[in-house]
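--- STAGE predict ---
source: upstream dedup step, 1 unique chain passed
mode: sequence only
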Amino acid sequence: MKKALVDAARRRLSATGKRTRHVDIRRAISDAYYAPFYALAQTCADELIGANKRTTDAWLKVYRALDHLQAKQALQKAAKSGDAEAELIVFAATFSRLQELRHEADYSPRPPEFNRADALLIVDQVERAIADFDRLDLFRKREIAVRMLLRERGKKETGT
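--- STAGE serialize ---
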């Protein structure tokens, strides 16, 4: 799904004539955001249930459990840890920025503040960030999946 969304974003930006319509730029940004989001959702389900279990209800439940805000916060926290790989730091920054751009693209009635060339650069950044994320080792991906889906209990909540 992640590659299909990146490809769809590129098609939206290249299928138009001389002047790219605002709606095509908006949809391309939205597609670009959902590519890493679905990459994360797939990673969570693959790492916690198993890539060989993609047809099961359990895999689908984990895949669908990913929350947009929680994903952003978990990635930012992981990127700030002392042992964060450069790939993870770039992916977290890209994801966070894309989430903001997607909100603007999907919900603002004003024309986007970026043009076709800007959107193409964003799509390229997303593709590189996903490739970097895919290169993380399996333990790191599993750790990220846990951070994405499980809420940390605060000190006040840890009673006996």
